[in-house]
Design goal:
Pathway: Protein modification; protein glycosylation. By secondary structure, the protein is mostly helical. It has one domain. It starts with a helix and ends with a helix.
Length: about 425
């Protein structure tokens, strides 16, 4: 009882000390990662007002929302053959999770007619996504708080993708960031389930799959990873079952069409190429080989712990010698997942404007995780600005697409020069001893 009273009496006394410390360090609040929670909390509440202002004052632009509603309306009317489901912009090309989620939105928004309500629903999605992203940054403490202003207030394109365009990409990414938070909490099975649900909304989330597979093998070894992969597959099977029973080939070929051809007029990243090269299957094959090769190089040289064979990840974790601190493990988990996705973005056959949300919230983490110490804060912010400018240039130009690739290359090289997990662990231990 006495100990309980002492604890309860000292708790209020900590608040003035914390406030006093914050006031004394006020000039460093935007630069010290310890203040991530404070800065992100202020920005999150500010974003509520920003989203309301955008919805009320900026004109909504119809692009895919009506097509989404037409596609799910076909299912509601009893059509389960994916080849027969289509909207204004073409056939339904998203997996079954998309159908269920947007069917719910169909009913919630008066058959898709209440656009204003739809915008507010997506504003909620935006705020949830920010909470999930901020929690990742708060857990890792890799990025100075001032950078979060660029994640929030500075990006017109991201606000547009969420509340002015109502794309399905933000829904998939919201679920993905939820899964990553579960991974960081050590809830791998539930995280894999939520990850699979994100894939069922839009398959761009598969770009995280190589990194996730590597982490699962590191965490559990081969045999204990298989049940989690099976869970992901079973979720896809159950969600798609009504459509698989009617036309399995049609469902798989439409919902998971990896060879789908993109239109040159919408590309953000390959504008400087001739259109015939952009459409060439040989060019697509080169990009695929480059993607796979880069992933393998990172897995072999940067993701695995130095001194260990890559085959060691297949063994039971209890038989391995290495141990990592919890913070180092969290940092490595986020870095592997974000890098896996980023590599996919670098070698994508085409990037459309709504695809920006696929990696926008991960860019600061990747930039501040790079191994080049001399890459100054100003240069990192400049890279973020150039990427933002490239995605806001419409239509894209030779210069905007080239600058995007240059920025991607700089980030990729910095990630390649990043210390290996063993060195990260050693640095974390040394830092903990100094403190």
């Amino acid at each position: 009882m006495a100990g309980g009273k002492k604890k309860s009496s000292t708790l209020p006394s900590r608040i003035p000390k914390t406030l006093s410390s914050t006031w004394q360090d006020k000039h460093m609040v935007l630069f010290k990662a310890e203040y991530t929670f404070l800065v992100t909390a202020v920005l999150w509440f500010l974003e509520i007002g920003i989203n309301i202002w955008v919805i009320q004052r900026v004109a909504y632009t119809e692009i895919d929302w009506k097509a989404y509603m037409d596609e799910v309306e076909g299912v509601i009317n009893g059509t389960y053959d994916y080849t027969q489901l289509k909207g204004d912009t073409g056939p339904l090309v998203y997996p079954a999770g998309f159908v269920y989620i947007f069917t719910g939105l169909y009913y919630l928004t008066d058959h898709g007619q209440n656009i204003r309500l739809s915008q507010y629903v997506f504003a909620v999605f935006y705020l949830i996504t920010l909470l999930l992203v901020f929690r990742i940054y708060h857990r890792t403490k890799k990025v100075p708080p001032y950078v979060f202003f660029f994640i929030c207030c500075a990006s017109y394109r991201i606000h547009s993708i969420f509340v002015l365009r109502l794309f399905n990409d933000p829904v998939a990414m919201m679920l993905l960031f939820g899964a990553i938070n579960l991974f960081l909490d050590g809830r791998w099975t539930l995280g894999c389930a939520l990850y699979s649900l994100a894939v069922s909304v839009k398959m761009n989330v598969l770009l995280f799959a190589p990194g996730l597979l590597f982490l699962l093998l590191c965490e559990f070894g081969l045999w204990k990873t298989l049940p989690k992969l099976t869970l992901c597959a079973v979720i896809q099977l159950v969600l798609g079952l009504p459509f698989l029973l009617v036309n399995p080939v049609g469902y798989v070929s439409q919902a998971f069409d990896l060879g789908r051809q993109f239109l040159f007029k919408w590309t953000v990243n390959w504008r400087f190429l001739p259109e015939d090269v952009f459409l060439s299957r040989y060019f697509h094959l080169v990009l695929l080989l480059a993607h796979i090769t880069t992933l393998l190089l990172f897995a072999l040289k940067r993701w695995k712990r130095s001194g260990n064979s890559i085959w060691s990840v297949l063994t039971d974790p209890s038989e391995r010698k290495e141990t990592n601190g919890s913070l180092t493990q969290i940092i490595q988990t986020v870095l592997v997942l974000f890098t896996s996705n980023f590599i996919g973005m670098c070698f994508s056959r085409s990037l459309h404007y709504q695809f920006y949300v696929w990696y926008f919230h991960t860019l600061p983490y990747l930039l501040w995780s790079g191994g080049v110490k001399k890459l100054a804060h100003l240069l990192r912010v400049l890279i973020l600005g150039l990427i933002e400018l490239s995605w806001n240039t419409y239509p894209s130009t030779n210069y905007s697409s080239l600058s995007l690739h240059v920025c991607h290359l700089i980030i990729l090289l910095c990630l390649w020069l990043n210390p290996t997990p063993a060195l990260l662990s050693q640095k974390s231990e040394n830092k903990a001893k100094r403190h």
